[in-house]
Amino acid sequence: MKIHKFIVLLAYIIFLMLPIVWLVTMSFRAVDGIHAGFSLFPREFSVANYIAIFTDPVWYNGYLNSMTYVVLNTLISVILALPAAYAFSRYRFPGGKHLFFWLLVGRMAPTVVFVGPFYQLYSALGLFGTPLAVALAHCLFSIPLAVWILEGFMSGVPREIDETARMDGYRFPRFFIRIFVPLIAGGIGVTAFFCFMFSWGELLLATNLSAAAAKPIAAVMTLATSGSGYEPGLVAAGAVLTIVPGAIAIWFVRNHIARGFALGRV
Q: Angle CA(189)–CA(261)–CA(199) in degrees, nearest 5?
């Protein structure tokens, strides 16, 4: 790589990482240090903000609530999307292409338009205020995306594998679980990652469909910006901790995401 390309790439990476570095350093400062002025590194290192989060039930319950509905949404979305994506990738039926398109239409509407219908539906079913309610609401957006991504990966698997398994006497459930699913394990990882990230970052439905004791971490963070006053160090520490699950998830699927880009499905 030529030196000028390396310098441009390095400058771009620094530009992207600077807000995160600033957020991390601010999370290790006391309030007085934050208001003392701008500096990239803390003059006095403090972990008081993290101690406050890990010892306050409101904060760590917010994390547990978020993880609960995010995991539920990811599992439900991937499990339901797998057979649907297989049908789109292997079979041709009247209106199939139009149906595939209309699957994504729901994602074009802002989430706020669904708050009212979901509120009434979950109140009638007794689901309002539970993590399952938020997970199911997020499935409305996650499942179409999951079908779209998985269909791309499944279409890359030769149809001869299906026919060979059929001639060898494999029944479809056994073939699908033991042979086909391992072949698209990378695609499943990428799909799970995007379902995870959507649900983790979505705030409007999660806040309005959950009870006070089941608020997600993003809603809990807003408490530190109101009420008793703005606590930037506490908010920064909470924000850093919200980045960790996504960073771990993207680490495991980083290679498969590149393939998803190559297929045009990411």
A: 45
| pLDDT tens-digit readout, 56-111 | 888 888 888 888 999 999 999 999 999 999 998 888 877 777 777 777 776 677 88
Exposed/middle/buried for residue 133 (C-beta within 10 Å: 0-12, 13-18, 19+): buried
Number of neighbouring beta carbons within 10 Å of residue 234: 22
Question: Any idea which residue has 């056994």 for tokens?
Answer: 174
Q: What is the DSSP letter of 176?
A: I
**Contact yes or no for 214/127 (Cβ under 8 A):** no
* Alpha helix segments (H runs only) across the chain: 3-27, 31-35, 48-55, 57-90, 96-103, 115-125, 131-155, 159-167, 172-175, 181-183, 185-201, 204-208, 217-223, 232-263
In terms of pTM, does the model score above 0.85?
no
CA-nearest of 59, 6, 15, 41 to 224 is 59
Provide CB contacts within 8 A for 223, sequence distance 6+.
58
